[in-house]
Amino acid sequence: MVENDVYVADGFGKIVDGTLIGDNLGNSIYAKTKTGVVFDASSRDMEGLSQIEGFNAFVRGWHPSFLTEVMLYSINEPIRIGAASVMPGDVVLAKKEGVIFIPAHLAEQVVITSEVVRLRDLFGISRLKEGKYTPGQIDNKWSDEIEKDFSKWIRDHMDELPVPKDQIQELIKKRMW
Predict the structure, then answer these.
(1) Is the dihedral of CA 89, 29, 43, 62 positive or negative?
(2) What domains sit in the chain, N to C, each tagged with a CATH number?
(3) Concatenated DSSP letters for 48-94?
(4) Which residues are 94's β-sheet partners?
(5) By C-alpha distance, which of 70, 2, 65, 5 is closest to 35?
(6) 36: number of CA atoms within 13 Å, CB side?
(7) Cβ atoms of residues 68 and 41 within 8 Å
(8) Cα–Cα distance between 104 and 115 in angstroms, integer?
(9) Structure confidence by residue, pLDDT tens digits, 82-138
(10) Whole-model pTM?
């Protein structure tokens, strides 16, 4: 493993006797990758792993047992994590709600699209709080009036938004919404 790699393993959802790492292996993984792990199984040593600043573990559960009745089948091969197929080199997007895997060749497109969605969500929430539009208007295909309002809002708030100004200008130029 090298920096930015994520250890992704399919342990078939095994919790008891399915602990794929503890804090020793977790420290070694983090020292090499500066990331963390995604397991369809469990981990142990939650206390020790939580002390590794920056380490992330997205696992099915935690258990004090050790790994038994499991065999390493392959390394860097396609696997499944829950209902997701995972290929070596996929980009991992891990959030509190869960984890998704993005094929590397689509990562840039996903990031750009997510930035547009993020800006539209910020605009929609701000206009809902102001009472300017109803949820039905914001959660539907936007009218020309709302699209124009959004474009003006983007220009007026460009310096305050969480998306870098140069990216916003590029999105405006391409009219990605």
Answers:
(1) negative
(2) 7-102 (3.50.30.40), 107-174 (no CATH)
(3) HHHTSTT-EEE-SEE-SS---S-----SSS-EEETTEEE-TTPEEEE
(4) 99
(5) 5
(6) 19
(7) no
(8) 18
(9) 889 999 999 999 988 889 999 999 999 998 888 889 999 999 999 999 999 999 999
(10) 0.77
